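Re-run requested by the PI after the first attempt was lost when the workstation crashed. Everything re-entered from the original request form. Ligand of interest: iron/sulfur cluster.
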Amino acid sequence: MSIQRNPTRSVRVGSISIGSKHPIAVQSMTATHTRNIDATVEQVNALAAAGADVVRIAVDSDQDAEALAEIRRQTTANLSVDLQENYRLATKVAPHVNKIRYNPGHLYHHEKTKSWQEKVTFLASVAREHDCALRVGVNCGSVDPDKKNKFDAHDTITPMIESASEHCQLLDELGFDRYVVSLKDSDPTKVVEINQRFAAVRPDVPLHLGVTEAGLPPDGIIKTRIAFEQLIGRGIGDTIRVSLTVPNSRKPDEIAAGREIIDDIYAGRLRSVVALNPKALNIISCPSCSRVENEEFVELAQKVKEMTRYAQDYAITIAVMGCRVNGPGETDEADLGLWCGPTRVNLKRGGEPLGAFTYEEILPRLKSELDQLISLRGS
Ligand code: SF4
């Protein structure tokens, strides 16, 4: 299939470049604790061996930042760092990575008296000093609150586009053009719309595509494929990540899945007439990362999928998230949301918290909530 890529500019990330003049880059992210240097290096190298062009590592603390310096010494992979909330860690991590990802919606958590513009100016200057690219990573679960409040609560897409656009504008004004943008949602149809709308206003900005919390394979791969086929097939997207809920040893599967989807699209092997069925049960789960405090999370996501099979004909969304940091926000749109702590799993129904349950108690409780929802919808 001949695909006319959007004319995006080139953004160098270590030994590769992202943009329309280069092949679509495939990325992944480590799910080990960053402080566990041996395990993280092993995973970075496994991902690179599987063909990852860039590997992202989350850094939340000074200890993680120190570990990152050692990880850098032990790998030649192109590294990206995920700053999470603590944007000031940029100075500590930038010397060891090729790209810094920040989330506009997370810049509010620290130093609340400083404007986001001051913080982005700081990040751009750190990136410039250390030869790093930036990613403005907008995520449906953590949209800039000022942008969200400006629009109707049902419009989840416009605030994301506005947030990304204003960050691009500031970076442009700062003369920093080595950046890419991502606009991720767990709903592939929204991922398609958001990226199409953004690409229409900023066709020059390279886009990093992803369906966040796509879930377990094969469903997670199918959801991602649906979005990527419609975007990449139209020339939108310069780098991708397939986010899958898999055990650490299977993280390289994300790279294999990404490459297969790209190859299939270019070969015209399109399957995305599989429109998402709005009348079916939808299980979303995050790909896990260093914030997971109990590795039983992946097993729990699998058990939820098996246990809920009987409800597959109901339009109910269940979200299973790996941590207490992003879990509460990223389950907001779900009918039933779970997020995992070290010994307990939190449960909510719509916006209402139902409590925290042990890993043994959670499945029967979830089933009882699901049964109630089904009976409500059936009546
Ligand atoms: S929900 Fe938590 S554990 Fe899952 S990917 Fe996001 S930050 Fe990581």
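Saved to the shared folder this time. The pocket of iron/sulfur cluster is lined by residues 286-289, 291-292, 321-323, 325-327, 330 (CB under 6 Å).
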